[in-house]
Amino acid sequence: MSLPQQPPHVPATATAATAAVQLNHTAVYATDRRLSAEFIAAVLGLTVAAPFGPFLPVDLGNGVTLDYYEKTDEPIQSQHYAFLVPEDGFDAAISRLEFLGVTYYSDPAHTDPGRPNTLFGGRGAYFLDPDGHNMEIMTVPYARP
Fold it and tell me: Is the pLDDT of residue 20 over 70?
C-alpha cells in the first residue's frame, strides 16, 4: 500500500495538526492490573481511579490516563513509558522507589544502578514495573532537533 503525498484532510501546517491532536489514554498490559496500577501510582504520588470496564485507570496530570488491562493469555511485552515530573516530584519518586526496594538506573539499558542521569539540564531515571515495562521519570523533556 502506498500513501498519497498529502491526503486532502491533512491540515496545511504541522503546527495546526500538533495543536489539535492529543493522547487521551493508553492501555498498559499487566498480569495483575491492580498491582501494576498501584505500583506506578505509588511511585508517582498518584491515585488509582475506579475500574472502567476491564481497565483500571491511573490519571496523569495532563489529561492522559494509563488504563491497566489484565492480560494473562500470553507473556507481557515490555513497553517504555516516560513521565515528566517536577523537580521536587523527582526526589519524591526516587525516595518511593528506594522505599519499595526498586532499583533505578541512569540509562535505559539498566547498566548504571542507583544514580539518576543529568540529560538536557534535568534529571532522569529508569526502573522496571512489576511486568517489566521500562518506566522513566525525568524533570526536563528531551531536546529534539
Answer: yes
Region of residue 110 (phi > 0: left; psi between -120 and 50: alpha; otherwise: beta): left
pLDDT for the residue 81: 97
Dist CA 35 CA 42 (whole Å): 10
pTM of the model: 0.86
Higher-scoring residue by pLDDT: 101, 61: 101
Cβ-contact 65, 57 below 8 angstroms: yes
| DSSP annotation string for 40-95 | HHHHHT--B---BTTEEEEE-TTS-EEEEEE--SSPPPP-EEEEE--HHHHHHHHH
